[in-house]
Automatic annotation (TrEMBL):
Enoyl reductase (ER) domain sequence ranges: 15-344
Protein name: Enoyl reductase (ER) domain-containing protein
Gene Ontology terms for molecular function: oxidoreductase activity
Pfam families in the record: ADH_N, ADH_zinc_N
Classification via SUPFAM superfamilies: GroES-like, NAD(P)-binding Rossmann-fold domains
InterPro entries in alphabetical order: ADH-like_C (IPR013149), ADH-like_N (IPR013154), ER (IPR020843), GroES-like_sf (IPR011032), NAD(P)-bd_dom_sf (IPR036291), Zinc_ADH-like (IPR052711)
CDD domains named among the record's database cross-references: MDR7 (cd08276)
Organism: Penicillium brevicompactum
Transmembrane portions of the chain: none
């Protein structure tokens, strides 16, 4: 076995230039563990925010970046029964969230947070920390799923399941929004996408969006109500946070759901203090529910994969970078030039 492997490291969190490659000793899996040869890692806004030191909940192991990755099991430890060498797998984001309600203890097992991340050549995970990749998906495609796709699935099926004819509002055209669009479409929903880019809105229409709104040229909350004859959105995938929540309150349908996800506009300490708690609550007048989403469970990931396989849904990959160009991948994602996912290929 190779004695060392390459792994990206963040010795400081002051920007993307801090990303460095270290050589780490390669270990063998212990009881209940699997050794994975990683082939692809996808990036999320969270990865960029951690590198810049502005993420609210970085975790003690965030200096080893990359939460979303896929690869091949190279070796299994004693007691492993679910996997064998050669199986293609993708890691779950919250390693200890297997099913049911998320607990405060489980949330500490996030990759590139409470536990080291995947932006390297090898990783050892518990056998329950991975799920099987459907045969039709590549490693690059599978690496896109753990955070963004599972988050969208949890939003639309985790508390109040989406129904045919529901109106689903998707903020932006990043990973969560594009996955939300794909999931909502196969569920028979009416989909509305917002963006500041007419080019991205045109691509959203090509993906099947029912309506597209440029929020720089119109009041998108009023536009949502107008497009739905005053009904509003039954589900809102709310990724903006403090800057967009007031508009979501106006756009949501009576007894609708606002799924609070990314809070990508929360950059200041004051904004971080104003984040909704990790809880669900309902307002009295008018009634709607604001639900904080922290990705989802292994069971939900498996449900998502079953849906994707049945409908042959493929992630939208905007751009792929080589392993040596990880800094450029971070910079590209941070520029908000993408639509869909940004992937780093590992040789």
């Amino acid at each position: 076995m190779t004695e060392t492997f390459r792994q990206y490291h963040l010795p400081e969190r002051t920007g993307f230039d801090c990303l460095t490659i270290n050589n780490l000793p390669k270990r063998r899996p212990q009881y209940g563990q699997v050794l994975i040869r990683l082939k692809a890692v996808s990036l999320n806004w969270r990865d960029c925010a951690i590198a810049k030191g502005i993420y609210a909940y970085p975790g003690e192991a965030c200096d080893f970046p990359g939460s979303d990755g896929a690869g091949i099991i190279e070796e299994i430890g004693e007691g492993v029964t679910e996997w064998k060498a050669g199986d293609r797998v993708v890691a779950t984001f919250i390693q200890d969230h297997l099913a049911g309600r998320l607990t405060a203890r489980a949330v500490k097992s996030c990759l590139a947070g409470g536990r080291p991340g995947l932006l390297g050549e090898y990783v050892i995970l518990p056998e329950t920390g991975v799920v099987r990749i459907p045969d039709y998906l590549s490693f690059e495609e599978a690496s896109c799923l753990p955070c963004a796709a599972v988050t969208a699935w949890n939003a639309l099926y985790g508390a109040v399941p989406i129904r045919p004819g529901d109106v689903v509002l998707l903020q932006g055209t990043g990973g969560v929004a594009t996955f939300g669009l794909q999931i909502a479409r196969v569920a028979g929903a009416v989909t509305i996408v917002t963006s500041s880019s007419d080019e991205k809105l045109a691509k959203a229409r090509e993906m099947g969006a029912t309506h597209a709104i440029n929020y720089h040229t119109s009041d998108w909350a009023e536009e949502v109500k107008a497009l739905t004859n005053g009904h509003g959105a039954d589900h809102i995938l709310e990724v903006g946070g403090i800057a967009t929540l007031p508009h979501s309150f106006k756009a949501v349908a009576w007894n609708g759901m606002i799924h609070s996800i990314g809070h990508i506009t929360n950059m200041t300490d004051d904004d971080k203090q104003n984040r909704p708690s990790d809880a669900t609550f309902m307002t009295i007048d008018p009634p709607y529910m604001l639900r904080r989403i922290i990705v989802g469970s292994r069971e939900q990931f498996q449900d998502l994969l079953a849906c994707f396989a049945a409908n042959l849904i493929r992630p939208v990959i905007n751009r792929t970078f080589d392993f040596r160009d990880a800094k450029e991948a971070y910079e590209y994602l941070w520029s908000s030039s993408h639509m869909g996912k940004v992937v780093i290929r590992i040789p």
